[in-house]
Amino acid sequence: MLPHKPPSAIRVDGEIAYIFLREGCEAIIDAADIHLVAGRRWRLLTTKKRHKYACSGQSRDGTFTTLHRFLARPLDNLKVDHRDGDGLNNRRKNIRPATGTQNNANCSASRKNKLGVKGVAFLDGLENGFVASIKINGKSKHLGRFKTAEEASGAYLSAAQEAWGEFARK
């Protein structure tokens, strides 16, 4: 028989609770949700895209329970979005059900983006060297050329807010 592994330790600070993950970091929840997560052993999950989440258990088919889905309990066809983009911040005010499109709209700029500004690219040698574009429903839309990255970013954010509302992210 395998030795029993103790559940994750939980530290409370006012209305916030911190779940100690076995890799040495912590996930954040509302203290009111401790009764839901206590008694489980939580660990860190890092995805291929380097997103970090807390998860628990592993079934025979290799699946596990992520803390955000465990707390939010979304419908099967929905994802759980972290408003601030921090997969370890699972406070109720930070997680919300979202479609795949809404969830993608709230992600940061791709690591391949050399400027680090979502929806903006630099075209060397042109007077208006910054180009803004957005992809909506699988179709790319050119938003214009701009003198500065800030102007191009503003055009992107405006289009993103029109398309995705509160899920739009810079």
Query: Mind telling me which CATH architecture of the largest domain this is?
Result: Alpha-Beta Complex
Structural class: alpha+beta
Strand coverage percent: 25-35%
Radius of gyration: 20 Å
Order of helices and strands: EEEHEEEHEEHEEEH
Largest sheet at a glance?
3 strands, antiparallel
Looking at CATH, which topology of the largest domain would you report? Homing Intron 3 (I-Ppo) Encoded Endonuclease, Chain A
CATH class of the largest domain: Alpha Beta
Shape: elongated
Strand order of the biggest β-sheet: 1-2-3
Q: Give the count of structural domains.
A: 2
SS element count, helices? 4
What is the first-to-last residue Cα distance? 52 Å
Report mean pLDDT, rounded to a whole number: 86
Helix content: 10-25%
What's the number of extended β-strand segments?
Answer: 11
Low-confidence stretches: none
The assembly state of the depicted protein chains is single chain
Explain how this protein is built.
- By secondary structure, the chain is an alpha+beta fold.
- It is built from four helices and eleven strands.
- The chain folds into two domains: 10-103, Homing Intron 3 (I-Ppo) Encoded Endonuclease, Chain A, CATH 3.90.75; 109-162, 2-Layer Sandwich (GCC-box Binding Domain), CATH 3.30.730.
- A hairpin with a 2-residue loop joins strand 10 and strand 11 (139-146).
- It is elongated, with a radius of gyration of 20 Å.
- The mean pLDDT is 86.
